[in-house]
Amino acid sequence: MKVYVDLVFFINFMFDLLLLMSVSIECKVFSKKRFLFLGSFLGSLSTFLLFLPLNNISLFLIKIIVSIIMLFATFKITSKSLFLTLIKSLYGNSIILGGLIYFLNNQFSYKQVGFIFVHDGTSINLILILIASPIVFYLYHKSFLKEKVKRNLLHKVIIKYNDINIETLGYLDTGNTVKDPYKKRPIIIINNKDLVLDQEKVILVPYKTLDNTGLLKCIEIRELIVDDKLLTNKYLLGISPIEIEIKGAKCILPNLIEEELK
Questions:
Q1: Which end of the chain is least crowded, N or C, by CB within 10 Å?
Q2: pTM here?
């Protein structure tokens, strides 16, 4: 039986590339395309394990190690929870994609001759990969651009009030137009656990959302630095009534900051 190693390697490379892109889209964790290709290349090297005298257990364990290497080569993994999310997505998508290819192979690559099923030479793996690749790549590229826009809204923030400094990541919300009714100062909203207010200096600012109204407890900011730039406008710092978590950001910046950063 002839085995075309280059074709098998190519199919495995493309399979791993599709797999990594689907993991990236599902988990919303994006990397540069060169890291996707690197991870796919490292994963496809496991093809050559088939030619080594390994038992099933050894082969299984090595494939697990290879899959972990693929993830670390492709994505910037910063926490244990992120790693677990990626590894679950990798194996979940692998089962779905591998099962789909197996099913299509049985349906279209075999013909019945009496009571015997014979492979007719059709490489459904290659056909499916050639059809699916541009579709998945388009979806990945579209999701990547959307995520890039969101990432551009994240800014490093240093807030100084009294003798306290808060360093955090802020999300620039262009729809945040909340201002205090007294001096029309824009308001930066932060998680309540990150801020202890001096009750004597609290300024109450009314706010209204689609499903809630209330009073926002705020204080004056002595100094505000965003992306290492000292901002000159006056801002208030308010406590959020709910937990803030937007792409890792712990506070919401008002739209006026966008003008100051230009």
A1: N
A2: 0.54
Whether the Cβ atoms of residue 129 and residue 14 lie closer than 8 Å to each other: yes
**Minimal CA–CA distance to 171: which of 156, 158, 161?**
156
Distance CA 203, CA 225 (A): 22
In angstroms, the CA 120 to CA 25 distance is 35
Q: Judging by DSSP bridges, how do beta strands 236-239 and 187-190 pair with one another?
A: parallel
Residue 122 corresponds to which tokens in the numbers above? 């059709």
Q: How far apart are CA 246 and CA 191, in angstroms?
A: 12
pLDDT at 55: 78
| DSSP state at residue 215 | E
| DSSP conformational letter for 110 | E
Q: Are strands 110-113 and 251-253 parallel, antiparallel or unpaired?
A: unpaired
Q: Which of 11, 29, 40 is nearest to 84 (CA)?
A: 29
pLDDT in tens, 208-236: 766 677 788 888 888 888 888 888 888 88
Q: Do the beta carbons of residue 174 and residue 222 sit within 8 Å?
A: no
Distance CA 112, CA 56 (A): 31
The H or E element that residue 112 is part of is strand 110-113
Phi/psi for 33 (5° steps) reads: -60, -30
Measure the CA–CA gap between 17 and 33, rounded to whole angstroms.
10
